[in-house]
Structures
1.
Amino acid sequence: MSLDNTIKEIKTSFHSDLSNCKTTTDLENIRITYLGRKGKLTVLFDDFTKLPGSEKPKYGKALNILKTDLNNAFNKKLNQLNPDSGKSNDNSEDFSLPGYTLPKGSLHPLEQITSEIKSIFQSIGFSVAYGPEIDDDYHNFEALNVPKHHPARDMQDTFFIDPNTVLRTHTSNVQIHLMENQDPPIRHICCGRVFRNEAVSYKSFCLFNQVEGLVINESSSFAEMKGTLEYFVQEMFGKGTKMRFRPSYFPFTEPSAEVDIWNDKLNQWMEILGCGMVNPNVLANVEYDNTKYQGFAFGMGIERIAMIKYGIKDIRLFYQNDKRFLEQF
Ligand code: PHE
């Protein structure tokens, strides 16, 4: 029989055996019969060495084509029967190489700052409360001593859903919900998103996060508020951080103040929060006895705290999901 015919025959019978093959045991038999050490293909290569030199180029080429064809068809079948085997069959793998490191996610910087703020206040007895982001005019303004047409409404440009429903402009609405739902004493913070219809720029965004604090009992004082906020600043920005209380105005606190901290790098005071003694009118609005109870409240922007702490210059970075920014935290 000529070598040409043998090549054709092996090729045909190999492919027909392969297409009848249903199990990996069958496949292993096929491997031994054709590709094994004494298999048909190996024998063919032995025969080839005995050919006269003039025939070698022609048959050498044909045999190599046959070999590639059989191996490819075999591996394809092996993969179908046992999809995981291909890899372990491949001798080219070097198991001593270090593995691939999978990209690791991290918490968003705002989430990190928020949980830091929470644990600082929790360590001095505050509980964490939540409140609605969509609220009525009453809880966001009216009950907080900001009547309709009061000029203080201009301090916070508002997104209205309808004339009576707003996206809250601050977390102070939660003060009212807390006091409506429980009697004093209250010692809570609340974190969440707030919305303002402001021109977007590096320093203001239409959405940001705040932490609100509210303490109501029979004895709290401005001095206690100062001590609480001083403790917070030292924990958050480091011991020895310089801070000052500056008189300010909020309709829902009286007296009111703002807190600035000294920024060594920029060589200037930076405002970080508003605070004050809860206005007796607010206590009356939630039907607390304002001759018996008193308290203090404070509110701060989380982005602002994060920007100062990490030296971030543009508030919009928090909302762009740019991995180059996020991966730094
Ligand atoms: N709600 C105020 C603001 O958004 C902050 C504040 C909260 C001030 C509580 C005093 C007391 O600016």
2.
Amino acid sequence: MHIEFDNTVLRELPGDPEAGPRVREVDAAWSRVDPEPAPAPRLLAWSPEAAALVGLDASDAADPLFTRVLAGNAVLPGMQPWAANYGGHQFGHWAGQLGDGRAISLGEAIGSGGRWELQLKGAGRTPYSRFADGRAVLRSSIREFLCSEAMHHLGIPTTRALSLVATGEPVLRDMFYDGRPGEEPGAVVCRMAPSFLRFGSWQLPAMRGDIALLRALTDHVQRHHFPDLAGHGAAGDAEWFARVCERTAWMVAGWMRVGFVHGVMNTDNMSILGLTLDYGPYGWIEDYDPDWTPNTTDAHGRRYRYGTQPQVAFWNLSRLAQALAPLFSDPAPLEAGLQRFASAWNEAERDLAARKLGLAHCRDADMALFTDLLGLLRDGQFDFTLFFRTLGRIDPQAADADTFAAASYDAPAHRRVADALGQWLQRYAARLADDPLALPQRRTRMELANPCYVPRNWLVQEVIDRAEAGDASGIGELLEVMRRPCEEQPGREHFASRRPEWARDRAGCSMLSCSS
Ligand code: AMP
Ligand code: MG
């Protein structure tokens, strides 16, 4: 198992003079800290696609050293483990220093696909662990591992997951914050991203008035991740911020297309590269409801519900703009950057409507066609994924509400929208008759935009239940399905089916909390 490392974060950004996990305020970008070894590490799953990015294959995964390194029990030459420092707005409020409390980066691997930071999540305490243990439980680690890779296969920018290792050590968790903690199996996921820097990485030095660190972070991220902008002074900075805005807009559009709800879009969970980051209390929309959030911590205000994700992204970018203000002599370029979010979102939303409906291009009137349909999905309690998949297979001229009966969760609700849905189908048929795409092209376009399989909350919960009972094979089975999410896979109908009744109010399926 050989990987070459080049740790630019440590070389280019200021570090904490103290090493080790003593909890403290840190006036720097990172702290050196080693992972805490796990007592009995066991490799439960790994992703061949992610491994290939850093030059690893099945023979490496079979090597006991692979498991030891990815559990935090061994450090390869060139690795210099560190925890990153950052702050963030949590649920709209400035929370001060947060940092990697349960994540430890091992190094920046030089792979065929560029630079990949390898980061263990759940490998022990760091200076940023505050009152917590730096550990992660098996259930949330399975969720992060599976969803990161599924997101990639769905074509949405995301951090990746290389491996999932059980630690053999129990972790104490109060799953519902009800004062009844229980022991759960612990695990470590190894995540990968070109960079894990977040909006909060800039916010913390800005709040502290540390302009030198703001500058250093900006130069660093431009040099390695926006190389065409590096060294271009104020114009480069302006264009860089605008690109962060655009990437964020397209990422959120990807989420909206497949019905993903991040669940905790705090600014410390917003990647500066526009990657889906920090899979915690996320969920997938099943019966379509734009007000739905899977996060029980957010159940009251529902700040992070499905339908508000674009607005929240904009709010978060506005906080980033505030943090960057000291680097700009006048605020106009930052305002222009935020405008680029608005125009990118507008374009992305039209693109997603056109793709989900199988239209060559989105005309102005098509947005109303699309939003009217979403209203019917909500009122008829239709499964978001199943409905669009069905829509791509039928002839709307010949279809009526009955065509979609199997996609609804509630027969009376379905009956109530039957007439309106019938009328909508006729509108849609008329629109298709006036579209340049031929039927086979339209079908393909819709198949690619409307996945057949998404890692539904209850599907992942089934995998978790089995794994907690000692059978981890479900992880690989679901990952295998998610490799080709848009292709119907005979014999795998279970993974494309509607949420079963047992999952409606089951913890882990409809109710999740932060920081498990
Ligand atoms: P999250 O809700 O996962 O984005 O976490 C918010 C903050 O809490 C981050 O600084 C995390 O590193 C920290 N945190 C969450 N869970 C733990 C844990 N089990 N141990 C230490 N720090 C944690
Ligand atoms: Mg986080």
3.
Amino acid sequence: METNIIEDKQYPLQGTGVLTPPSGGGGAVGSSIQVFAPATVANVVCGFDVLGFAVNEPGDEVIMRRTNKAGITISKITGDDGRLPLNPAKNTVSVSVQHYLQSIGRTDIGLDIELHKKMPIGSGLGSSSASTVAGLFAIKTLMGDDTDASTLLPFAMKGEEMACGHGHADNVAPALMGGFVLIRSYEPLDVVRLPHPANLWCAIVFPDVDVPTREARQIIRNKIQMKDAVTQWGNIAGLVSGLFMQDIDLIGRSMKDVLVEPVRSMLIPDFYVMRELAMEMGAVSFGISGSGPSVFAFTRDEDTAKRITAKLQQHLTSIKIGSNAYVSTINDKGPRVIG
Ligand code: HSE
């Protein structure tokens, strides 16, 4: 079995054949690049830590330039209200890029990074993942490394571990690979791209309250009842079946979470009111995006998604909470070079 070793942590690779070790620097080496990487909705209600999908917007951008001096600098971060570190030893983008360079034996390279945050931090939309994935895709492309983007997954997981204390892959995998992704196993790492109905729309609303993932993970129960486990794995299997069968009704009735949502919903203002509003307006399903506070609804069309975001934002305004909203289909491409 192939193994990617990053510091003390091993990420054995097996399964789908998508993951292969990076070749690193096989092709032409560029000097500057600008990359966009998308936001993601992790968990997808019933699949805690094992399901996620990418959306078209929002997302983050990284500009990476080669420099003459070995090592990584971060010259600029915008859109973060001063919350993210410019110190390359403390920033998830530079740290994961450094891991990549180490793995290909190219720590002689000099790089300068600009990070442009185009999405809220601590929103439950995979903010740190989008930045990390943009940085990793930028260095991979600059190095002329033409292996599949999924080879960057172990490095991106290192970034997640640094950001919230746990290297979960349900944001970074869809951000890197695009589409709907199942983390079938963490040890060994085995990720599977899932199909999805083309007309599945996603309405996202971010209520402007801070819910750090690290803390949202700490409040989850460690032990669960067998009857709850049975409910949960029935729903996960139902959701995955619905995706394969293009059965939106099955997708909707499977998106129920008896393990995490009952606890985390307490961190989200009027979560159950928002759910009722969305379902009354024709949502297929409704739940927490990642660790929250963002919420999302699946719909069958763009118009319903737009009407739901407008209604939820109106409700949040009425309880004096600001919000952002996004409407998107599922992004099957993942990161892309934009300059
Ligand atoms: N699966 C992770 C969690 C996603 O729910 O904590 C974080 O965005």
